[in-house]
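Lab channel / #folding
Pinned by the channel admin:
"Please post every new chain as: sequence first, then the structure tokens as a reply. Keep commentary short and put observations after the output so the thread stays searchable."

First post following the new format, from NK:
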Amino acid sequence: MKRRDFMKLSAAAALGTTMAAVAPAALATDLDQTNGDLHTTVDRKKASMGLGDGKTFAYDPENPYLNVNVGLFHDVQVTVGGETVGTATYYLPDGMDPWAPAVIVLTPDNTTAQAFSGTITGRQWRTVAGKNKIGVAFFGPKDGGSWNLGLDSGARDDAAALDALYQLMRKKSTKLSGAFSMDKSHTALVGYKEGGAAALLFGGRWASDFSSICAVDAAEVPAASLAAIGGKYVLPFPGDSTRAVEEEAIAAGTVDTPVWFICSGADTTNKAALDFYLKANRADAKGNGVYATTREGSAAEVWVTEKAQCPASIWKKFSGQFKRFMAMQLPGRVAKAEDFTRKGFDIHEEWVNGELRRWMVYVPSTYTGSEKVPMVLVMHGYTASMYAIAEESRWYDVAEKNGFIVVFAQGLVRPADLMGNIPTAMWLAGAFAALAGKDTDPAVDLEFINTLLDRMEKDFNIDKTRIYATGHSNGSLMTWATGCRYTSRFAAIAPIGYMATPTQDLDPALLLPVWAFLGEYDSAGVAELVEDNGTVKALQGWNAHNGTNEKTVAETTSYNGAFVTKSFVGKGDVPLVKYTVVKDTPHVYLQEESVAVWEEFFSRYSRGADGTLYYDGTPVTAGQHQPSADWYAAK
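Reply from TO:
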């Protein structure tokens, strides 16, 4: 993923004041415990160069987005069922962003992860990681022996071990060696020689884990082993829990996956592997050794080349280009990574209210500044990033098509000791506000958003009557909280993946239309409507505030039955509260949700300067809330 380099401004330069005036007193600790002094800077550089073991650095409020774990972390324990089945070596360069892409490199036979990390190829991968600010994990066969390509029941289950490594890399506990914030949608798999065969075989077994697979000089993958793993069920939702594996029943041999065979005998010794992936991708030849999927909505391709490729080339041409998102196209949508340096995107990093904040604006090509345009504020989930929510939701595509501005706000990376995690990107809203720490105002993120709205209205010709907010998970909590605190600034909100009741900040005199979404298998909320559960209580609270009639609830379906929506209407049959369950879907923000929210909801609402809400240009007046138990099930 290409990202514009940020220009690092000191707090003093940005605010024209002293550093001490910017940083909270509680953060002005001994310099040896922060990343700001020469001694620690040298240590970070040495660690990043791979000189000695990896190091864990203290959180630095002056550079909050810096990763705290830097360098080579050996002997990372990989466990299956509580038993250690292998060890990995991580390489984490200095300067990784939150939610960084990663590559898992599988070694040849008779080679340990630690040994391979020090080879020429291993060092080249470390250089790629340093240049692109990604994580790299090296993993080898059990005890540095041989990969279990024949699926011998008496040997290590290498497929289970590989999946366990991927799941481990997603965890952020301070108890883990080399924990970092990994982009689960952009984790590429690369293997060499027998490790290349392992990548093709065991990567195929857990295809939904990986954004792409690359086999270099691969040994032969036994056809019988491919046939055996092809019928196994994969995780239906990339990087999510094991829920719904049996219900969705997605066979590994049916998953579209970008694959590159490099000097791997794809037309000879590994023809069985090539045929496996051509069938899985439903791929047709494009020419020059490239086969493209025929699945609508997928960007997967299979490449076959006999020219050697260095790690930098593999990343630049292939592994860095594909991503796998959770989507309605089970088990995930394969897409090309977005280039955030292209025209339309504008990335900011500036000091706001004493904290170093980031946000990204997408300005549609039709914007000239001569006419007022609507604006949508979008907020990511816990540990994620503005880039992640942009690519998942594709709000920039909706903005381009409909001529409005969208701003993707970045949650500050903060210490997460109370969660047992390394510092991670978060929004201090709802239950997360308790993580603020004794010297941090729990409302600081709300104040940042308010300041950001002011800034957007200053920088662009924004139609102040048509500003909207949406977010996913922790960003959904932030959407609920922001809508309540600054109701008069928003015409409608759409929280995705987390339910919440109105807070005491909500002005009782102002209506606020809401459209909430949960996936059928959502891990952060219960989709079923059962008396007294959190989802029902949240909807009851918003129905009461907006004065809807719960006795006349309309239920509709869309997207071929995937969206099942209940609409609660107020006076004049205006849909002031909507709730959608997305079938066959986990905890995710879908691009289809963005399209629906804009076309069916946001675009129809506006708010006058006096606070009056309008629906299709007609004023909306508050009705009398009429509760009913008919729309949810009894306990």
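NK: The first strand starts at residue 55 and ends at 56.
TO: also worth noting, The mean pLDDT is 93.
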